[in-house]
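Lab manual, section 2.4: Encoding a predicted structure.

Procedure: take the sequence of the chain (217 residues), apply the prediction step described in section 2.3, and record the output as structure tokens. A sample record is shown.
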Amino acid sequence: MCFLGNPGTGKTTMAAIITGLLYRYKYIKENEYIYVDGNFFKSSSDPIERTKLLLVKAKKKVLFIDEAYALVQGNYSLGQQIIATLLNEMENNRTDLIIILAGYQKEMKQLFLSNSGLASRVKNYFVFEDYNLIELQNIFTQMVYKNQLAISSNALEKFTDLIEKEKKKSSFANARTVRNIVENALLEHQYNLKNNLISTPYMLQPEDIVNTKKSPF
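Recorded output:
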């Protein structure tokens, strides 16, 4: 399979869900997926041997390769050797191994163009769209509720303003960005309560919603 989408759109989460379903219906024999990224294969003195060992470990499971396009970035020749090793295993062990390739849509296109055999063996493609504003608000509220807190209408409005600004940045990562905001808000909430800046222990207030990320980008 191939998962296409930007950061924080649920690709890794969906890999875990699919693994559970495949195990439940006996397509794989172990309810486990192995997560690596494209650079993992190259970070060894013997990348081909590392690839082979990983594939042996992944038999009867799901192998999830995030940022798979990294395989052909940098040392292109080595990347092609690794892909050839993956393809050989995909062909020879079709009933014992499921591989999910994931990454940004534009970069993944370059990966598939680099090797025609890859495109011929991957049959299922899923596009994970960016979340819209309402969906981001829903993700925010659900994450806060899981922490046993309510949200004031003014706090939700402030979150909306903040997430709209974040969406315009190249570093925006959908649900991952929302999670960062929630984690910051929980810390700010405790600080504000301790310092008597707010008086609502079970409800987030606008004072709790801040962007504390310090980045030059």
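Check your result against the sample. DSSP finds eight helices and seven strands in the chain.
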